[in-house]
Automatic annotation (TrEMBL):
Keyword terms of this UniProt record: Membrane, Transmembrane, Transmembrane helix
Name this polypeptide is given: Archaeal Type IV pilin N-terminal domain-containing protein
Entry superkingdom: Archaea
NCBIfam families: arch_flag_Nterm
Xref: Pfam families: Pilin_N (PF07790)
InterPro entries: Flagellin/pilin_N_arc (IPR013373), Pilin_N_archaeal (IPR012859)
Domain Archaeal Type IV pilin N-terminal: residue ranges: 9-85
Membrane-traversing stretches: 12-36
Amino acid sequence: MRTLGKAKKGISPVIATIILIAITIVIAIAVAAWVFGLFKSYSGNANGVTILSGVSSCYSSSSNPTGLNTPACIIVLSNQGSNSVSVIGASVNGQQVSVTGSALTVTANGRLT
């Protein structure tokens, strides 16, 4: 009869338990940080610019309050982020539209009409 080889040893159950607890703690910290917003500055929308009202007012060429002889629509923007942002362009339904002013800036936690 042949002698069977030594059985391969695995890791100790104590070591396996310690590794599982460590992994669980790391996952719990990551979830807590995400829930409480600790990674907010690393997210894709850190600036937080949102449109408060889509098209609140539209004017024809003759009734435009800006004094320009062109049709216009007013859009209200809000910056909920911590940095100022500049509005350099806009598009409606994929068509580029002009923005009044060369560089409109929405300050941190501010509004631009």
